[in-house]
């Protein structure tokens, strides 16, 4: 714990997922899954790894914001940081000048998350967490080790996938034991009806279907559009409208309740203050936390506790680059230490880019299996970082050459 931070470096790492329309939705039609990837070095050789997720262009802005925060971390000992973690969080989010860029939202918030994720990783690697839990905690822990945490898949039905691909992926997923599926909707109603019908026919009446519009509609449009899709029995509509429109979500939630469809926040709900108001306004039936949008673990823990207080299940967002690796820790904490319930709870899973991580997530029979290695699981393979670093990595040089030839 006496380790002192001697440097904090950040790199712009991007993957060309847009080439095959992975990750495409009604608003983000060509995402290149990317990360501002942070490495903290200490004077005793121990390192911490963290990241925040982006979808391509603009990652360089997040990288600059991380650089701007680095001075607040370098020179501190881990002991100094974790003995007053709240104070450290406030130091990062309330710097007298940089606060103007937020507070606790936008680029500076993403940058804060990348830094804090790396600090948590460093802390977890430095500590030996001793299980001194009583029987109650031990029971959920044993259950997780044996069965894992239930997951749902978004990999089958990105908006840009043709029907044939959707069918094939759905067949494969069913064979792999998946029972919960999410479909991207919101660009064209007739397309949505066709795709939802197709997937519902494939998965049958008893498996779970969810839909996600990624903020595409205004409030009235969301209500009428989702009502048209109600025959396919979606459990929730995610991000039906602007992520800042709390009363809009409340109106949608009220209108859809008789149809048995809940409302979920998505991965772009800004921060803990917004979550508080969403919950107070009864605007949500499902809370989605995000390991990189919120200011990292600190803020996510606050949201888990608030959701518990309001009796709303947490079903975290994941996917992207490294989000499944990060979020598995948060759901295990939620189950073992907060909710002890799996009722209406599941965590998103997307089957991309895990091969770039040193300790990739382990999925068994559509469940997240608890990670066994110390840390926050987002250390990337150095070879992957170098190859995909933007714009100088080999992957991007090759892409650039191809474009110039064309
Ligand atoms: Mg979403």
What is the CATH top level name of the largest domain? Answer: Alpha Beta
Helix content: 40-55%
Structural class: alpha/beta
Bound small molecules, deduplicated: magnesium ion
Uncertain regions: pLDDT < 50 for 5+ in a row?
none
Binned strand content: 15-25%
Pfam family, one: MR_MLE_N
Organism: Seriola lalandi dorsalis
Enzyme class: lyase
EC number: 4.2.1.68
Report on this model:
By secondary structure, this protein is α/β, with parallel strands linked by helices. The chain folds into 2 domains: 5-129 and 381-405, Enolase-like, domain 1 (2-Layer Sandwich), CATH 3.30.390; 135-369, Enolase-like C-terminal domain (TIM Barrel). The protein contains 14 helices and 11 strands. The protein has helices at residues 59-70, 78-82, 85-93, 106-126, 135-147, 163-175, 189-203, 219-228, 246-256, 272-280, 296-309, 323-339, 382-388, 394-405; strands at residues 5-14, 34-42, 47-54, 149-157, 180-184, 208-212, 236-238, 262-264, 347-349, 362-364, 367-369. Strands 4, 5, 6, 7, 8, 9, 10 and 11 form an 8-stranded mixed beta sheet that branches. The termini are far apart. Bound molecules: magnesium ion. Magnesium ion (MG) binds at residues 212, 214, 238-239, 266-267, 317. Residues 163-259 form the Mandelate racemase/muconate lactonizing enzyme C-terminal domain. Keywords: Lyase, Magnesium, Metal-binding. It holds the Pfam family MR_MLE_C. It is an enzyme of class 4 (lyase).
């Amino acid at each position: 714990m006496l380790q002192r931070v001697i440097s904090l470096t950040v790199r712009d790492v991007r993957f060309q997922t847009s080439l095959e329309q992975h990750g495409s939705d009604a608003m983000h039609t060509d995402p290149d899954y990317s990360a501002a990837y942070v490495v903290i070095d200490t004077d005793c050789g121990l390192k911490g790894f963290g990241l925040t997720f982006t979808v391509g262009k603009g990652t360089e802005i997040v990288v600059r914001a991380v650089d701007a925060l680095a001075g607040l971390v370098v020179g501190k000992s881990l002991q100094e940081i974790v003995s007053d973690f709240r104070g450290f969080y406030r130091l990062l989010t309330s710097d007298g000048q940089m606060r103007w860029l937020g507070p606790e939202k936008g680029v500076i918030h993403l940058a804060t998350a990348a830094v804090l994720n790396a600090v948590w990783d460093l802390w977890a690697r430095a500590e030996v967490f001793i299980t001194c839990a009583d029987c109650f905690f031990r029971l959920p822990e044993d259950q997780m080790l044996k069965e894992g945490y239930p997951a749902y898949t978004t990999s089958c039905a990105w908006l840009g996938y043709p029907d044939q691909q959707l069918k094939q992926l759905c067949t494969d997923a069913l064979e792999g034991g998946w029972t919960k599926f999410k479909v991207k909707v919101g660009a064209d109603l007739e397309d949505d009806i066709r795709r939802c019908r197709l997937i519902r026919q494939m998965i049958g009446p008893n498996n779970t279907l969810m839909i996600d519009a990624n903020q595409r509609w205004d409030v009235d449009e969301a209500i009428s559009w989702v009502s048209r899709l109600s025959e396919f029995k979606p459990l929730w509509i995610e991000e039906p409208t602007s992520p800042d429109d709390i009363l809009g979500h409340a109106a949608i939630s009220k209108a859809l309740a008789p149809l048995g469809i809940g409302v979920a926040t998505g991965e772009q709900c800004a921060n803990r203050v917004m979550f508080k108001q969403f919950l107070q306004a009864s605007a949500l039936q499902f809370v989605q936390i995000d390991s990189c949008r919120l200011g990292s673990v600190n803020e996510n823990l606050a949201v888990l506790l608030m959701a518990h207080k309001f009796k709303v299940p947490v079903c975290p967002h994941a996917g992207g680059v490294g989000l499944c690796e990060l979020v598995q820790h948060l759901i295990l904490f939620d189950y073992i230490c907060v909710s002890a319930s799996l009722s209406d709870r599941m965590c998103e899973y997307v089957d991309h880019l895990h091969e770039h991580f040193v300790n990739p997530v382990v999925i068994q029979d559509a469940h997240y299996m608890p990670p066994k290695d110390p840390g926050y699981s987002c250390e990337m393979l150095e070879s992957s970082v170098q190859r995909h670093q933007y714009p100088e990595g080999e992957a991007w040089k090759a892409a650039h050459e191809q474009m110039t030839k064309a």
